[in-house]
Amino acid sequence: MPADEICLEAEEKMEKAANFLHDEFKGVRTGRASTGLVEHLRVNYYGAPTPLKQLAQLSTPDPQLIVIKPFDPGSVKEIEKAILASEVGITPAVDRNVIRLAVPPLSGERRKQLAHQVKDMAEQAKISIRNVRRDANKHIDREEKDSVMTEDEALQAKEEVQKLTDKYEERAEELLKKKTAEIMEV
């Protein structure tokens, strides 16, 4: 396999790791209401687990409130059950066909816990990125050993993989800084 294909494959995997981290951060509560807290929840809708964002319109009319308007009014009870069973930690208020989630402000201690939690998530993403680098480097070494790639090509490919690793680790760090700032914002 040519070096550019190895690098392209590594970049795709690193991109997936960074995107996964971004999606994970959406589900972490900050002091402000965000539809990202609940949109990933699975609701038992006619026997099939369905993402909430496919069953209802989600909005945040003010910084402390999430409003859920189901497309099918008959699904209100199931949506309420899913929210109560989740780890969101907010009790839903049902008003006929509308569900309201009042997002309470976070305590200073809880903010620190959440900041630590997102730091751990970012570290896991960085580990995934480094694992991709390790696998790509092993692949390059194998290609060099099998005389498919010259020593110079292998060295150049490894440098490219390292540049990609640095780029995506930096992206994970930027996501972490942004999320930590959101959490610590009072």
Describe the structure.
This protein has 186 residues and is an alpha+beta fold. It has 2 domains: 102 residues, Ribosome-recycling factor (Topoisomerase I, Chain A, domain 4, Orthogonal Bundle); 68 residues, 2-Layer Sandwich (Gyrase A, domain 2), CATH 3.30.1360. Helices cover 59% and strands 16% of the residues. The strands form 2 sheets. The chain has a 4-stranded antiparallel beta sheet with strand order 3-4-6-5. The chain has a two-stranded antiparallel sheet with strand order 1-2. Helix 1 runs antiparallel to helix 4. The protein is elongated, with a radius of gyration of 22 Å. The mean pLDDT is 88.
Outline of this structure?
This protein has 186 residues and is α+β, with helices and mostly antiparallel strands.
User: For the residues shown, what is the average pLDDT?
Assistant: 88
Reported by name, the CATH topology of the largest domain is Topoisomerase I, Chain A, domain 4
Strand content: 15-25%
* Superfamily (CATH H level) name of the largest domain: Ribosome-recycling factor
- The general outline is elongated
> Class of the largest domain in CATH?
Mainly Alpha
Detail the topology: elements first, then pairings:
Blueprint: H1 3-26, E1 42-45, E2 48-51, H2 52-55, E3 56-62, E4 65-70, H3 76-85, E5 93-95, E6 98-102, H4 108-145, H5 151-184
Antiparallel strand pairs: 1-2, 3-4, 4-6, 5-6
Helix pairs in contact: 1-4, 1-5, 4-5
